[in-house]
What we know:
Helices cover 24% and strands 30% of the residues. By secondary structure, the protein is α+β, with helices and mostly antiparallel strands. The chain starts with a helix and ends with a strand.
Amino acid sequence: MILSDARMDDNAHGEAGLTKKQAMVLAFIESRYVQTGSSPTYEEIARKFKWSSANSVTNHVAVLRKKGFIAETSGKNRHVTPTRIVRSHVRASSRIPLLGSIAAGVPIEAIENVETWFEWDALGVTNERGDKFALRVKGNSMVNRGIRDGDVVVVQRQSFVTRRDVAAVRIGSDVTLKYVKQEANCIKLIPDNDFMGPITVEPGSDFEIMGRVVKLFREDI
């Protein structure tokens, strides 16, 4: 009787009892997924390991699926999906770092260290590109926009905003939350509070638009 390649190498590998060959197949699938965003087909796996028999791929895939390392799609060109890579990606894409506090009033020094991580994928907020961060609001200068002291805002990193965007901006080492209005000889940071005036940013100032507020979270209702 001729044994398939999946059973020829019975030397247990350190990863959940996989043989060396099975671990190599898994590594190839995961590597391809990380590099390209898609998994290899059965035919590509067979070419990689120079297998002439489709049964070799089928047997290896069956073992990896049984152990929970991959999921399988149906169809003419069957693909396999590395489940632990996908799970890791989902966890990472839903995590948004809370960096510290941002002023909705007079600028305050921003804390750049990560205080904690929020996972808001259930609310439809993901961070697949790693371009979002969260800040806790201090003050009420944007209260007419519905942003209150103690709220947490999610900011998408970008260097431009419109007049109606709530922007997170940096002035020196301080950060604040305002509307940004470009005037002829300066930039005005406009609050949304009837009792507060704008902040003027003079030309040559150390000024940066950090991003645009895209979501607000409030713990107390």
